[in-house]
Amino acid sequence: MIKTAGLGSHRPLSGQLYKYTNVVKGWQQRWFAVDPETGVLSYYLFDGPGDTIQPGQPARGEAHLAAAVICPSDEDSRTFTINCASGDMLKIRATDARARQEWVNGLRAIAEIHTKAMGANPPLQPREQLAVHDAMASARQQLQATEISDAALARCIESSDSPFPHTDPDLLLLKATSAASMQCLLQCLGILHRQQQYATVSVSSKNFDNDH
């Protein structure tokens, strides 16, 4: 259940979500809370129903939402990502599609307000920026899928014995062309990412290493 509040109040947007962690390579239950006044998203260790967050309990991690990009994922109806201006990314899963939409809408609203408050020059146009950010997130996802396909192609060629050996010139040319194309796509996305960052002000984001 997501708890919402007016952005002018001091009560946070909060609720139970699942965060993907690199340590265990899986989804871990966390309690998330956003302070709309500071634009800081914090998450805490949470064991499920019956568990409570104690006053003064240290956050497991924090991220500033100013200039952050919040994007629904194409992989299912519950997952979304928060791409921070610092370059950090949080991959989060809600309980259902409706909860995801509520979180995405709430986080985007807070991020938009704090992005405007940064006084970026030239002034940001949130709706247009959001469309660009969504497109960039989609491009990143497509590129990840392409990387997987490229690696699979390379493994297939390297293990090929018949009817053509892996040293066949045409296969080697195919492998090299695929790798070169992949490298070109990565470089192009890197250039676009740097241009995107240039248009925003870098915001510090703190995350704890044991939860990545």
What is this structure, in a nutshell?
This protein has helices spanning about 95-115, 125-160, 170-200, and strands at about 15-20, 25-35, 40-45, 60-65, 70, 80-85, 90-95.
Question: Any overview of this molecule?
Answer:
- The structure is a single chain.
- It is built from three helices and seven strands; from the N terminus they run E-E-E-E-E-E-E-H-H-H.
- It is elongated, with a radius of gyration of 21 Å.
- Strand 1 (13-21) and strand 2 (26-35) form a beta hairpin.
- By secondary structure, the protein is α+β, with helices and mostly antiparallel strands.
- Helix 2 packs antiparallel against helix 3 (169-198).
- Helices cover 40% and strands 20% of the residues.
- This is PH domain-containing protein.
Roughly how many Å is the radius of gyration? 21 Å
**Helix-strand sequence:** EEEEEEEHHH
What is the share of helical residues?
A: 25-40%
Low-confidence stretches: 1-11, 120-124, 200-209
Content of β-strand: 15-25%
- SS-derived structural category: alpha+beta
Q: What overall geometry do the principal axes of the alpha carbons give?
A: elongated
SS elements, strand count: 7
- The oligomerization state is single chain
How many helices? The count is: 3
Distance linking N and C termini? 25 Å
Give a short account of the largest sheet. Answer: 7 strands, antiparallel
Output the strand order for the largest sheet. 4-3-2-1-7-6-5
Average pLDDT level: 75
